[in-house]
Amino acid sequence: MQEKTVNHKAWFLVLPVLVLVAFSAVIPLMTVVNYSIQDTFGNNQFFWVGLEWFEEMLASDRMWNALGRQLLFSGIILAIEIPLGIFIALNMPKRGFWASFCLVLMSLPLLIPWNVVGTIWQIFGRVDIGLLGYTLKAIGVDYNYTNDALDAWITVIVMDVWHWTSLVALLAYAGLQSIPDAYYQAAKIDQASRWSVFRYIELPKMAGVLMIAILLRFMDSFMIYTEPFVVTGGGPGNATTFLSIDLVKMATGQFDLGPAAAFSLMYFLVILLISWVFYTVMTNLDRREG
Question: 174 lies in which domain range?
Answer without folding.
Answer: 60-289
